[in-house]
Automatic annotation (TrEMBL):
Its main location: membrane. It comes from the Bacteria. Residues 33-450 form the Major facilitator superfamily (MFS) profile domain. The chain crosses the membrane at residues 29-46, 67-92, 98-122, 159-180, 186-206, 243-269, 289-312, 324-343, 349-368, 389-413, 425-446. It holds the Pfam family MFS_1. It is found in: Membrane. It is a multi-pass membrane protein. Keywords: Membrane, Transmembrane, Transmembrane helix, Transport. This is Spinster family MFS transporter. The keyword Cell cycle does not apply.
Length: 456
């Protein structure tokens, strides 16, 4: 491990070849830590997203409407997840980040287990709120930790690798949740989903390192944020148009992704129910199990490739032109809605599933470039707080409003507009997908300023 250099003051840049203010870990440990954090993030999304494949059986069992599904999967979770992320990120700027991640993992896994015991809609919503409270401590803290572990020129790739947990967790949630729900019911699916997190929490506590501990006490004190840190970070970001363009572009992407997640399976059940049942029977499965496996394996595998590829392409292209960090997600945001709309309109369930591979391959390209940009726009003392502010915007708009808005739109189109539940959910998904054009515009605007505003 290299000797630490003196920490830079707020607003200072890191010159090419200059030692990082917090010493980097060895290459071998960095690989181990990134793998472990990616697996933790996988559990994070497994526990967060398993409810999407269970939405239809929960709806039928508890006799609730689409807007309640949207509330349960999105808004109720997101409010606590995003709001609590801000003070926890403030704590992560000075407190042991390993302990924060381990404790958060324990809490959200426990509440996932509790979801399986919920007796009514209110109890299930309260348990989902508990999951959101626990998960609030994971992502901003992990982003800060990874940025300290990783050299600047590899940061997008590292954060993209961490973000593989999003599609991988979604894959496992859909595939495992559907099969288990068909065999033993949706309650058992929650119980199985919550158990791995408790094991990973123990591994985190025992094997992860806090790199700040390698600093001498006086340097650690200098790195600790002072009074008014959150306000200072907001003031610093107010002079960074790139941050706001990127944050709201990513929020639109999240709105589409989270908004579609609880209703994609419902679209197939309502519009291609007989074909799905026939396909499932060919594999000795029921409809939910087959659809969970199909959507999970195809969409999840595409998302894993997309997440990694976005970071790799951005890091390579940015060596020639830093604006590539924005070009990659911008182009993907423009192309993805076209393929998605086509998938919603074809008559065949098989064709629709395969066409969805295209938006799946394009949909996660933004993770690495966006999160690396946020970390590079600020000095190291502001990284966790900056990540939490970005995630607050992304998740309040995306997770908080996406499922609820798509659910409300589906109910309006199905009822007052007279389309029926099958066409209502189809056109709610199509209309929301077209918002990707707005994300393209914001990413493209961020290209104009990113080169001048990166500092670390």
């Amino acid at each position: 491990m290299t000797e630490a250099s003196a920490p830079a003051p707020y607003g200072a840049t890191i010159a090419e070849g200059e030692k990082p203010a917090i010493p980097l870990v060895s290459d071998a440990y960095r690989r181990y830590a990134l793998l472990l954090l990616m697996l933790v993030y996988t559990v994070n999304f497994l526990d967060r997203q398993i409810v999407t494949i269970l939405a239809e059986p929960i709806k039928n069992d508890l006799h609730i409407a689409d807007w309640q599904i949207g509330l349960m999967t999105g808004f109720a979770f997101a409010v606590f997840y995003t709001v609590l992320g801000l003070p926890i990120a403030r704590l992560a700027e000075s407190f042991n980040r390993v302990w924060i991640i381990g404790a958060s993992l324990t809490v959200w896994s426990g509440f996932t287990l509790a979801c399986g015991a919920a007796g009514n809609f209110v109890q299930l919503v309260l348990c989902r709120i508990g999951v959101g409270i626990g998960e609030a401590g994971c992502t901003p803290t992990a982003h800060s930790l990874i940025s300290d572990y990783t050299p600047k020129e590899k940061r997008a790739s590292a954060l993209a690798f961490f973000s593989i947990g999003t599609p991988l967790g979604g894959l496992l949630g859909l595939a495992m949740g559907g099969v288990i729900a068909d065999a033993w019911g949706w309650r058992t699916a929650f119980l199985v989903a919550g158990l791995p997190g408790l094991l990973f929490a123990l591994i985190v506590f025992l094997t992860m390192r806090e790199p700040r501990n390698a600093l001498p006490p006086e340097a650690r004190a200098q790195h600790a944020p002072g009074k008014g840190h959150f306000k200072a970070t907001l003031q610093y970001l107010s002079s960074k148009p790139t941050f706001w363009f990127v944050a709201f572009a990513a929020a639109i992407k999240a709105f589409i992704g989270y908004g579609h997640a609880p209703f994609t399976a419902s679209f197939f059940f309502r519009n291609h129910g007989e074909e799905v049942a026939s396909l499932a029977a060919m594999f000795g499965l029921k409809s939910a199990g087959f659809l969970g496996l199909a959507l999970g394996l195809m969409g999840g595998a595409a998302g894993v490739i997309s997440s990694w590829l976005g970071g790799f392409i951005a890091d390579q292209a940015a060596k020639r032109d830093l604006r590539a960090y924005m070009s990659v997600p911008a182009i993907a945001s423009l192309l993805s809605p076209c393929a998605f709309v086509f998938a919603m309109l074809v008559d065949s369930a098989v064709a629709a599933l395969f066409i969805l591979l295209i938006p799946g391959l394009l949909g996660s390209l933004w993770y690495g470039p966006v999160y690396a940009t946020a970390q590079g726009l600020v000095p190291i003392q502001m990284r966790a707080t900056t990540a939490s502010i970005m995630l607050f915007i992304i998740n309040m708009v995306g997770l908080g409003l996406g499922p609820l808005a798509v659910g409300v739109l589906s109910d309006i189109l199905a009822g007052p507009m007279g389309m029926g539940s099958a066409e209502g959910v189809r056109w709610a998904l199509i209309i929301s997908a077209m918002l990707g054009v707005g994300a393209f515009g914001l990413f493209w605007m961020a290209r104009r300023t990113i080169r001048e505003e990166m500092v670390s």
